[in-house]
Specification:
Blueprint (H helix, E strand, L loop, with lengths): L2 H4 L6 E3 L2 E7 L13 H18 L4 H7 L3 E11 L8 E11 L3 E10 L2 E13 L10 H12 L2
Antiparallel strand pairs: 1-2, 2-4, 3-6, 4-5, 5-6
Length: 151
Amino acid sequence: MSLAHLDTPYRGGFVGAEHHFALTVYFEDTDTAGVVYYANYLKFMERARSDMIRAVGVDQGAALRGDGSAYFVTEVDIRYRKPARLGDDLIVISTVDAVRAASVDIHQRVIRGTEQLTDARVTAAYLDSDGRPQRQPKDWVERFNRITTGK
């Protein structure tokens, strides 16, 4: 294995319409019993969502530096089914459910092997620098729609 490979941050990727993002549960993610603290699932899903948005070709950093616009989570509905534990290898699977003028609905599941640990629906709204909803750039909407339709 080359040193350059080791110095490159991990990136998830698409398998069909699903974005897969792998991670390992570290000690910092758990309580004293070695069980993942519930709020950390939101962190896992945020990393996966950010990676999915990057993978689709959306540069949120440029938008934020430009006019101050960015995606903000405005709603999360999450169901915890089973706990993850210290040392578990997990995959966050993200799919785009709906694309609207100023938001994207994303379904996210945290999986361990064949077990589904969480099931969440997240709405990410595109907001301006004052926190008001605004239309997403047209090419971003088209990129998200391509994921949902597979075209």
